[in-house]
TrEMBL record:
SUPFAM superfamilies xref list: Protein kinase-like (PK-like)
Assigned keywords, A-Z: ATP-binding, Nucleotide-binding
Residues at which ATP binds: K132
Keyword Iron: no
GO molecular function, one term: ATP binding
Name of the protein this chain belongs to: Protein kinase domain-containing protein
TM region(s), chain numbering: none
Source species: Gigaspora rosea
Length: 150
């Protein structure tokens, strides 16, 4: 039986693929991304997209209500950045506690129930995060955006 060495996108492990294109670990089928044609094993949410293309499309759908914030979030999804910003609905936070207040914002800690991405489809649920709530979010200025970049 011929094996093709590849990384399974579904289970995230370096596994060999059987000749029938199934992962030897989780039996996910290998296919091609409909956007970039790269080989993937199991597509993201049955959209037949690889990880990079799925997240690129999600970035295009960001709508915080403020174009400057949307652009900032999109900019952090460049591969050169180690950390990426996400727009998260407020309902995904629990145990919110204020830890500070400044000139144009208040700072809180909270538990993010969905958590941070740790792989292709997995998340580190119930992650502790810091929230910055703007006092007048309709008037975001370059000083605030500069603070986010730092």
């Amino acid at each position: 039986m011929k094996h093709i060495k590849d990384k399974c996108v579904d289970c995230g492990k370096n596994r060999k693929l059987k000749s029938n294109k199934l992962c030897t670990c989780c039996n996910s089928k290998q296919t091609k991304c409909i956007s970039c044609s790269r080989k993937v094993v199991l597509c993201y949410e049955n959209n037949k997209l690889c990880n990079d293309c799925y997240h690129a499309r999600q970035i295009l759908n960001i709508n915080s209500g403020n174009q400057d914030i949307d652009n900032l979030i999109k900019a952090t999804h460049n591969k050169q950045f180690k950390y990426r910003l996400e727009w998260i609905p407020f309902k995904d936070f629990v145990d919110i506690k204020q830890i500070g207040s400044g000139g144009f914002s208040e700072v809180f800690t909270a538990t993010w129930t969905k958590g941070t991405l740790t792989g292709f489809k997995s998340r580190d649920e119930n992650a502790t995060v810091v929230l910055k709530v703007l006092k007048d979010s309709s008037n975001i200025n370059p000083e605030f955006l500069k603070e986010v970049w730092i």
